[in-house]
Amino acid sequence: MPTPPHPAKRRPSPAAVGLHPRNRHQGRYDMARLVAANPALRAHLRRTPDGGQSIDFSDPAAVRELNRALLASDYGIAHWDIPDGYLCPPVPGRADYLHGLADLLAADDNGAIPRGPEVRALDVGVGANCIYPLLGNAEYGWRFVGSDIEPVALHCAGANVRANGLQQAIELRQQHARGSLFAGLVQPQDRFHLTLCNPPFHASAKEAAAGSQRKRRNLGADTAAARGKPPPLNFGGQANELWCTGGEASFLRRMIRESVAVQAQVLWFSSLVAKREHLADLHRQLAKAGVAEVREVPMAQGNKQSRFLAWSFHAPAVRAAWLHG
């Protein structure tokens, strides 16, 4: 692979003002339609002050039934389940990340979004929920490899894949080398248009617990504690889903270092970045790694601001050729 002719360049996208325009979840949820798709959701409906209907987003059981309804009604995913205590992801935000990645590929192909099984993506840390492969295949027809270090998570993800007849579209692999991301997982014959990741954000179990408490308060769950009830577990999450030694910054520095070794096999690497204060250091690490291009793509859902960082070791002409190769 030739050395890039110039250092990595930061090219941020315009500021996000809401969900991606292609996101199916604009505005309020149509609860009547969602209950029709998943009748179990009805038991979790609550009346809002303005007379509408919603759910208690601090209740993991309610969020799980909402997810089932969204996946069934909007994506044709008839079966979806996760064990108690595992991360229950918000579908709209996960879909936004995929739409942003689709735009990333389209920018290298004169605005045409590549669709179909020729596009192959690697989800680093697929989790029991397998949400990115399920959504990405439903929206764009892409094929996925999902990796995880936890056998239980992969077993549950595999159950979701098989129940929806997606064995040909979604492959699951266990990462046996704890502490590695691409090493030992990406095989010599692999070729990926994209990698994506929702990294563990916290540096310790204590920090993760404090973050969950803050989230519960923001969602109003402290009212349950005021009534003498134990607070719910929010969106759940196992230890490896929520924290790792050194937290998000350390995890992403490792990802950047490992991406150098497999740069010839991946068109665009990417990851969510929860904490804005990590971005400056990550851009420095990418420049040291010799990447050809960096994209920082903002996302927003309600009051929550987020973003993903993407990088490629390939020049624009090479990326365009790759999409037609």
Description of the structure:
The chain is α/β, with parallel strands linked by helices. It has one domain: Rossmann fold (3-Layer(aba) Sandwich). The strands form two sheets. It has a seven-stranded mixed sheet, sandwiched between helices. A two-stranded antiparallel ribbon has the order 1-2. The radius of gyration is 20 Å and the shape is globular. Pfam families: Methyltransf_10 (PF05971). It is found in: Cytoplasm. Belongs to the methyltransferase superfamily. METTL16/RlmF family.
List the helices and strands and how they pair.
Elements: H1 31-37, E1 45-47, E2 53-55, H2 60-75, H3 91-107, E3 120-124, H4 131-140, E4 143-148, H5 151-163, E5 170-174, E6 192-197, H6 205-218, H7 222-226, H8 239-242, H9 247-261, E7 266-272, H10 279-289, E8 293-301, E9 304-312, H11 316-323
Parallel strand pairs: 3-4, 3-6, 4-5, 6-7
Antiparallel strand pairs: 1-2, 7-9, 8-9
